[in-house]
Amino acid sequence: MKTQLKQIMLMLTLVFTFASCSSDDDDKGATNSRAVKYEVTGNFSGQMDAVYMESGDSGQSVDITKLPWTKEFTAASGTTGAAVQVSGHGGVVDQTLTVKIYIGGKLEKETTAKAKSDGTIVAIPGTYIFPL
């Protein structure tokens, strides 16, 4: 059930991202590479998991047992984008997570999140859309 909920949350994030895109958001100079790298760094000490989009727009879920964590793959031609969400609990207030998305070796999306007073954290750098 936990995995299904994470996949649903990822898919909803993607739906809202695609819906908010418009033709004036053209990504001039975008790479045609489909080499994807997700990277998570920081000092968060609690339990963490990542939900990410892999080839074919399928959602995947993984427990992160130590930092730094990376996931690399080449997205299939039918894949529309790259997205990752990292969440955790049991940390200490103000501990951090930085989540990055690289496409073809170039940093495309990045965010840093801080743990709240209850020790929870959520970091979502956004969705990278492959150029048509």
TrEMBL record:
Phylogenetic classification of the source organism: Bacteria, Pseudomonadati, Bacteroidota, Flavobacteriia, Flavobacteriales
The UniProt similarity line reads: Belongs to the MmpS family.
Q: Name a GO CC annotation attached to this entry.
A: plasma membrane
Q: Which keywords are on file for this protein?
A: Cell membrane, Membrane, Signal, Transmembrane, Transmembrane helix
Q: Where in the cell is it found?
A: Cell membrane
The record, for InterPro entries, names: MmpS (IPR008693), MmpS_C (IPR038468)
State the protein's name: MmpS family membrane protein
Q: Which domain of life is it from?
A: Bacteria
Q: Where is the signal peptide?
A: 1-19
Organism this protein belongs to:
Flavobacterium potami
